[in-house]
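Quick look at the format.
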Amino acid sequence: MTATPFSLTALRLRFECEAQTSLRLGGLKAGSNLRGALLNVMRRATCAAYPRSALGAAAGADPEHAKTCPVCWLVAANQNPGEERRGYTLAMPPTETIAPGERFWFELTLFGDAIASLPYFVLAAPEAGRLGMGVGRGTFALRSIAALHPAQEPETVLEEGSHIVHPPQGRIGHGDILRAAQTRWAGELSHLLIRFHTPLRVVQGEQLLKSPDFGAFFAALLRRVDDLAAQHCQQEARPAAERERLWALANRVRLQESDAEWLEVQSGSSRSGKATWISGLVGDARYFAPPEVWRELLPWLLWGEVAQVGKDTVKGNGVFRMMNAE
């Protein structure tokens, strides 16, 4: 059976920064704090309806405005929760505190038509650093930006010491993912370790997934990348037979051992004024499958590394990395 061509494209950027004062980022809440700092700047600088747009439709934001405002389109609360996929993710190491003068990084990934929103993030990052983020509003300075690619060297977008931003050329497409899978695992693979760096929050049925079951994890991953491709890259729906074949392969993967645990995490919301749960699984899980199973699944797992998996990916959740565990 011939697989359906996959049209998802992504632009993945790493922002390197330097703390100017002590940054208290809250560990697993670091991504959420970063998102809040960036979005507050973007709304104030770009959105004509701010502050009403920051509070959502219930507070009187105009739905027609949200359709034409690039910031509202990118970051507003979903009109159809569980169906819409925002066109970006953020990722940041779950760090508690960063000392003055210490370097740190965060990653921004944009998908398909959302890539056009890159200038808003590039302009927001230094201003967010000036205003501060986290408890006590610690400040930082943006030092450089690089575009990351799974099969190439990083591409300089903003060189340290320069104020000139070079538009990145390196988009990630499915061909790049296929080449990266062949390069990264050139030999036979049977044991794979997946490290969940930030909370994996997956809903299976109506229940939260609290153990690293591979079949449920992969189903959530495949659904996410398919939705991103459909909503941001005009991808046709994956044929049911192809989807079911991949699910069947994923269900052949066996969990051998795991120290992944469910961690309860709350983050604040400037939009609602309330705390929200971003809890999830964090830790390592070691899986076994025949090499022919991994050959079929690895490209989609690599897309999952790019796209992150589960809920709250815009707050830094769902970051995982794979390692050969032979």
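Next, a different chain entirely:
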Amino acid sequence: MTDPRAAVLELLERERPRRDAALAAAPLVRASDPEVAAVVDALASPGAAASLADDPYWPKWDSPWWQLLTLLELGLVDQAPAAALDALAGAVREKYLAFFPFTEDQVPPGTDPYRDVLCHCALGCLSRLLHAGERDPGEAVPWSRGWFLRYQLPDGGLNCDEAAYLRPTPRSSVVSTVPALEALLDQPERAAGEDAFLARGVHYLLQRRLGCLSLSKGGPIDASWLDPVFPRFYLYDVLRGLTLVTRWARAADEALPAEALVEALEALAARVAPDGTLAATRDDHALARTVRREGDGWGKGPSSTFALLERVRRGPSRPLTRAWYDALDDLAALAAEGRLA
């Protein structure tokens, strides 16, 4: 069997020199592009304010929540109207329960258990957005302080399925866990216990080889995670996991085990195009269903998108390509420092 560390070093030597040419070949989304301008105009409109007041999150994928997160992932959150960010924070602060109920009898009367409870991955995404928009998530949404630590399970992760917390052996979810870890990693100053939360959460992910190993059945937890997706929103792929753990190791001055990374690295390298770019290939955005306003109530149906999302959700991606080479550079730095085990 090939030594995992040697395999990672060989991959780094082969792939890293392609960075500059790959980024030059990857399409750039600019603030001046018409699809971006359309999103910014929509977020500044009375319709956006009305949508946020009606529901901060739904419908998927075309409410202000998803438009703002798309700008975040494109590195364009500075284009978002300040009023839209503040309205989103205010709507979240006022609408959702200040805790995560495990059973229906914990949900107060008059509260919709589906639409009035914020899950961990959604709060993680929101926290990253607010931080990127130069807002303190804990000040914007005070009840969010300490949320992630409060709901961390013994295995190190979180789970947006409330039933998981009542099982004899609770199990976390990668999808639920990663946005929360990203949110805390983004914070320049962390509260007591948050560094330990991050370390335990990263260990949870590394144990599962970034999703390439199910501890119960072997093989990938979800084979689709090997294929990149964009925008991620709360969705997961192994590049997202790789980015998280390499950033954490550099910031925390910790080592990473090559054995936990090599399968994800090789899967991603196999998906890199001849020009060095990485493309979004999954259809999650096209297949999802949503909750949507229907008259005086809410119903379920197919989700909708918007022009900017349609433009970036398939094909060569500058953000994915940059994330790939950033992770490789971080790994090379860790190896040089003797922190690739």
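The radius of gyration is 20 Å.

See the schema section for token definitions.
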